[in-house]
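User: Show me a protein chain along with its predicted structure.
Assistant: Here is one chain, sequence first, then structure tokens.
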Amino acid sequence: QMQLAESGGASVQAGGSLRLSCVYSTRTSSEYCMGWFRQSPRKEREGVASLDFDGTSSYDDSVKGRFTISKDNVKKTLYLQMTALKPEDSAMYYCAAHSHWGCSRLQGEYDYWGQGTQVTVDS
């Protein structure tokens, strides 16, 4: 079991930056794959970035070079640093996790989800 809570969403101008945070808690010692997903009103939820327990990360092509996923194991916090934001990055952002094998950006693989934090990028 894992609980996740996102924060850091805001309204920003295009070209700006934001850092999203996701505080997680778990009573197990399992190794987790963690990811960031986003969903806008007219699109399906999509995987933005994933981070495996060994530090391996992956990104959607739309955010490569602009977003960075990272984790602080002491603070039990997952981050998504977003730079050069575009209006099309506007969405509700969710963090998620699972503890089974593999670490992709496919939402069906994730068992635990936060409630989301809204990011709006104005042109």
